Structure formats: structure tokens, C-alpha cells
Amino acid sequence: MEKPHKKLDVWKISMELVKLVYRITSDFPERETYSLTNQIRRAAISIPSNIAEGTARQTKKELVNFLHIAQGSLSELDTQFDIALSLKYLTEAERNNVDDLMIRIDKMLTGLIRSKKA
User: Fold this and answer.
1) Are 18 and 45 in contact (CB under 8 A)?
2) CA angle 1-115-75, nearest 5°?
3) pLDDT digits (tens, 9 = 90+) for 45-100
4) Measured between alpha carbons, how far is 48 from 10 in angstroms, rounded to an integer?
5) How far apart are alpha carbons 14 and 22 in whole angstroms?
6) Using CB atoms within 10 A of its CB, is residue 7 exposed (0-12), middle (13-18) or buried (19+)?
7) C-beta of residue 47 within 8 angstroms of C-beta of residue 74
8) What total of structural domains would you count in the chain?
9) CATH number, domain at 80?
10) Domain region containing 45
């Protein structure tokens, strides 16, 4: 199914972030499966999901709202990875890889929001 969100670079990169998050969290302690691991994965999944939902809406205002929600999920993910790093569930290098993608996504979302508000 060819949908408009699949053409957006920010959606594609968000999907890459989801895959990276799953790879990293697969090494988290098993006791975290239903807590931090689950929360991190849900936040990551929420980012491309909200981009997709927003592009399916009828108005720019609705799209912008969902893009803001995606940014909120990005901030949530950032905090959760801070927690995981402080608990030594991931390495600095893994954290930096996640940061690189999150910064890129955040800038792209900000640009898309500005373009839709204009």
C-alpha cells in the first residue's frame, strides 16, 4: 500500500530509529522486558506511527498536531535512554548512535511543522 507518509524522509529515518531501538533493547536485562524495554520500544514506535497518522488527516492543523505528538515521543525516548544509560544497560556509543538519529529526526520534524504552519 503506497501511502504519502512513506515518501517522507522523516518517516523513513524514524523507521530506522525503531530498528536501532529494537536491536539495542534486545540486550537489556530480561527483568526490564515489561517495564523500561517496553516503554522505550513504544515511544520509538510512536514516532513514525504519528507521522503516518498525521499525513492521513484532512487538514494541515491535524498534521501539525500529530507531528508535535511525534516530537513528544522523541523527547520521551530521549529521557528513557538517559535512564537506560545511567543503569548501564547500553554503551555510550549506542547512546550516541541513538542521539544522532533523534537529533536528525527532531530537526526534520521541526522543519516540516514550520512548512505546514506557513
Assistant:
1) yes
2) 80
3) 999 999 999 999 989 999 999 999 999 999 999 999 999 999 999 999 999 999 99
4) 8
5) 12
6) exposed
7) yes
8) 1
9) 1.20.1440.60
10) 4-117
